[in-house]
């Protein structure tokens, strides 16, 4: 059952459906590459807010409608403000008060790869789906991205050098190295939710707080990226986000951990 849809001003849309009770599937399509443009991020965040505020707690699944692609990187020639908005989206996903699952049916590249990692669980829908830290390693500061990966998955056996060269990790290797939980088709999502008892977990009164505690290293890594960029002047001195959505203004910002 479709719950709502939102158009992306730069092209494309988000649709939220509930195929099973309290399982929210947020599907997006922004051709050609699902790049994390400012309008894509804005609508993504507004959808997260609507699900949280308008529907009972459940499980959130995100997926792409573009074949062989989950989510791309920042647009080419993106500016500092657009980069900051992307980091803020990642932090919001890390702190989202429901269990989250990224269903990766194709490539997840750059910040799109990090977006998938910021979900609680990751299921790759195809053996040939892949994870890649960037399109062009020579044109990107990889240190913040690598630091965030280490903070999210400290036990992963994937080496920084492998990622730094921009080599893709395909589904079986990604699962072996701890970046992905399972490989399977869409029905695997519902089996996974049942096996992990995720619908029961989300009803715990202290779920949000426990999730923030468990993700504290990753949240701190994102805070450090933001602080470093402010201190070096990359974001200027206007700390309030000019691109903030209603979600930010409607409640106090979470304290740093």
Automatic annotation (TrEMBL):
Q: Which InterPro entries does this one have? A: ClpP/crotonase-like_dom_sf, Enoyl-CoA_hydra/iso
* Superkingdom, natural source: Eukaryota
A Gene Ontology annotation in the biological process aspect, one of them, is: fatty acid beta-oxidation
MF terms in GO: delta(3)-delta(2)-enoyl-CoA isomerase activity
Q: Where is the composition biased (Basic and acidic residues)?
A: 235-257
Protein name, UniProt field:
Enoyl-CoA hydratase/isomerase family protein
The annotated region (Disordered) lies at: 231-257
* Signal peptide segment: none
**Per the UniProt record, which residue ranges are transmembrane?**
none
Gene Ontology CC terms, in alphabetical order: peroxisome
Record's CDD domains?
crotonase-like
Q: Which SUPFAM superfamilies match?
A: ClpP/crotonase
């Amino acid at each position: 059952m479709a719950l709502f849809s939102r158009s992306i001003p730069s092209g494309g849309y988000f649709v939220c459906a509930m195929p099973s009770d309290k399982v929210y599937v947020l599907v997006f399509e922004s051709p050609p590459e699902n790049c994390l443009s400012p309008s894509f991020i804005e609508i993504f965040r507004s959808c997260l807010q609507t699900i949280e505020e308008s529907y009972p707690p459940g499980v959130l699944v995100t997926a792409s409608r573009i074949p062989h692609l989950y989510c791309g990187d920042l647009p080419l020639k993106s500016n500092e403000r657009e980069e900051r908005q992307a980091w803020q989206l990642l932090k919001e996903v890390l702190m989202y008060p429901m269990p989250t699952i990224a269903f990766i049916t194709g490539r997840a590249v750059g910040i799109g790869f990090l977006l998938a990692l910021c979900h609680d669980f990751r299921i790759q829908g195809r053996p040939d789906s892949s994870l890649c830290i960037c399109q062009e390693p020579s044109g990107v500061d990889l240190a913040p991205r690598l630091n965030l990966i280490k903070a999210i998955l400290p036990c992963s056996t994937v080496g920084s050098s492998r990622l730094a060269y921009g080599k893709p990790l395909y589904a079986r290797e990604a699962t072996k190295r701890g970046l992905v939980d399972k490989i399977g088709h869409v029905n695997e999502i519902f089996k996974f939710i049942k096996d992990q008892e995720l619908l029961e977990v989300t009803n715990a009164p202290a779920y949000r707080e426990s999730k923030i505690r468990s993700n504290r290293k990753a949240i701190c890594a994102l805070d450090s990226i933001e602080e470093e960029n402010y201190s070096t002047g990359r974001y200027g001195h206007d700390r309030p986000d000019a691109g903030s959505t209603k979600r930010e203004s409607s409640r106090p910002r979470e304290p740093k951990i």
